[in-house]
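Researcher: I need the complex structure. Ligand is S-adenosylmethionine. Inputs:
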Amino acid sequence: MIDPFGRAITYLRVSVTDRCDLRCTYCMSDDMKFLPKAELLTLEELDRLCGAFIRLGTNKIRITGGEPLVRRDVQQLFAALGRRLGAGGLRELTLTTNGTTLAQHAEMLAGCGVKRVNVSLDTLNPAKFTAITRRGKIEKTLDGIFAAKAAGLAVKINAVALKGFNEDEISPMLAWCGEHGFDLCLIETMPMGAIEEDRTDQYLPLSLVRSRLRKTWTLDDTDYRTGGPARYYNVAETGQRVGFITPMTHNFCESCNRVRLTCTGTLYMCLGQDDAADFRGLLRNGIDDAGLDAAIHAAIARKPKGHDFIIDRDHQGPAVARHMSVTGG
Ligand code: SAM
Ligand code: SF4
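Model: Output:
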């Protein structure tokens, strides 16, 4: 699948639920209204759509949310997609999770062929963790992280860099990740969906974080890529990597290889734009595989050039109305 700007679309991110057991302040409002369950694609519908994308050249799928591991019977989807790995055409199956129930799922994930997980952890301080997630207990996420490691999964820690919240923790987190063999990926906060906080107050440019880290750490250039938008450096002192996802300070759209499917079967061709294609209606009206393939091609042909995220005093509202938990980041 090649989009109008010549980019090969090989990566599908699938949000399997909009629900979450946490309410991270930069991601959700405190009183989020979640979708009625009837609006969600069934696990069979999700697997069928993933199968169509794989048939058309998708080789990497990331399961996300909301919190993907709170979706009932999600293991059935991992098992079904796991069968598509290898000769089935899929090269990598992975997920992004807040880790709260990862301890119960780590062995299952490894058994389904998952090799890597991204776990979101913005702080190592228990009280700050509860504050930023509005309800979480850090022990559960840490248990999940170490269960994943014990199950043989490579763990990458995702942390959103937030001004005045975790700026002073980034260097200690890099050390902690190095000690335990995890890569760390830092993310700039993006203006998606209405939240209670002022995003101008939260926004911390990663260019600043990187130059601060360089005072303590040797960050060597590498062309390591995971198929995502992060720019990685080898951390000489730890042997692990640190990645920077900089949608605000450096627009990564020119190399975008992905599209995003929501749990209701809406395909967003760009994280930062509103145009979307509905697949639930097509699936429930009995579309055949040829029709499904044609609809996917038609959607890819509408993929826009890029997003227009801006955060400053004149642009405090969201660039798109939907929250990150709808499309899963
Ligand atoms: N619940 C899972 C988790 O937290 O890992 C998966 C979904 S979550 C929406 C995916 C990632 O998006 C997380 O790493 C989270 O920190 C990040 N995220 C959420 N809202 C964001 C925002 N407004 N800007 C930047 N990253 C955001
Ligand atoms: Fe939930 Fe993930 Fe959003 Fe936090 S970032 S509220 S864990 S979906």
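Model: Summary of the prediction. DSSP finds eleven helices and twelve strands in the chain.
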